[in-house]
Design brief:
The protein contains twelve helices and six strands. The chain is α/β, with parallel strands linked by helices and 267 residues long. The chain folds into two domains: 139 residues, Response regulator (Rossmann fold), CATH 3.40.50.2300; 70 residues, Arc Repressor Mutant, subunit A (Orthogonal Bundle). A six-stranded parallel sheet has the order 2-1-3-4-5-6.
């Protein structure tokens, strides 16, 4: 003869908030919820630096703060990753190889496909051309590689919050470059370029070397130099930095558009 099993008794007081055991359960649930919310609100950062080692080191340093979650990523899959997950900031090395271009081209693609994602570009060396080119590609922050990590973290935080960030040296370069902006009168009085001259200087303003321009347009480097010389003389500019400002203010600078290899009809 088998004995009847004891009934499982459930004390409804266990589910009553007045029960001293209940706050312990609730407290645990609240902590889990709080942790989950913090993870969702933490800054998400992807690093596509010049090589995997540099990306790994930067990601580790950035993730030391629990409010930031950083991970290294290859430039080859960055755009696909951005399409499927939320990322607040992407840090890109300027010398990163991307298809047939570099980190500037990668930044332009990120901004074009994911305009809500902020971009920071790391420069090996700050020059007027590189700083201006970085901002023209859509970067919201420009950081020089020799600067301390604390400044990079500040840059990332500021950019995530919607600000534009540049180091002291880069800001000085920008201010000097602004001094070279031609006045509106000079802009209106300057002679027009031929279609080929305009095509060449547009490529130059996008950061391409004379050799790259020659390859894109099917010209010799010597011919490219001649077009550049004639264009600089007509426009009254003395550097590619001034050329970039000039074309921007004239509305002659293509946005994320690669130059065509087909020669225009008017040289």
């Amino acid at each position: 003869m088998s004995l009847p099993r004891p009934l499982l008794r459930v004390d409804t007081r266990d589910f009553n908030s007045s029960n001293p055991r209940a706050p312990q359960i609730q407290g645990k649930e609240e902590r889990i919820l709080e942790t989950s919310l913090k993870e969702k609100s933490s800054m998400q950062v992807l690093i596509a630096d010049r090589d995997s080692m540099s990306s790994d080191l930067l990601a580790s340093a950035i993730s030391n703060d629990r409010n930031r979650k950083a991970a290294p990523i290859s430039s080859a899959i960055l755009l696909q990753e951005l399409a499927i997950r939320r990322v607040d900031v992407v840090v890109i090395g300027a010398d990163q190889r991307f298809r047939s271009g570099d980190g500037f081209d990668l930044a332009s693609e990120v901004v074009r496909h994911q305009p809500k994602t902020r971009v920071v570009i790391i420069l090996n060396e700050s020059t007027p051309d590189s700083v201006i080119h970085a901002f023209h590609c859509g970067a919201r922050g420009v950081f020089a590689r020799h600067q301390p990590m604390s400044e990079l973290l500040s840059c990332i935080d500021q950019v995530r919050d919607g600000h534009i960030w540049a180091g002291r040296a880069e800001s000085d370069l920008l201010l000097e470059a602004f001094k070279s902006i031609p006045s509106p009168r000079i802009l209106s009085d300057s002679p027009s370029l031929t279609a080929r001259e305009l095509q060449v200087v547009q490529c130059a303003a996008m950061g391409k070397t004379n050799k790259a321009i020659a390859g894109d347009l099917g010209l010799s480097e010597h011919t490219v130099k001649n077009y550049m010389f004639r264009a600089f003389e007509k426009l009254g500019v003395t550097s590619r930095t001034e050329l970039l400002f000039f074309l921007t203010m004239r509305g002659n600078l293509p946005n994320n558009t690669a130059p065509s290899g087909e020669p225009p009809g008017n040289d």
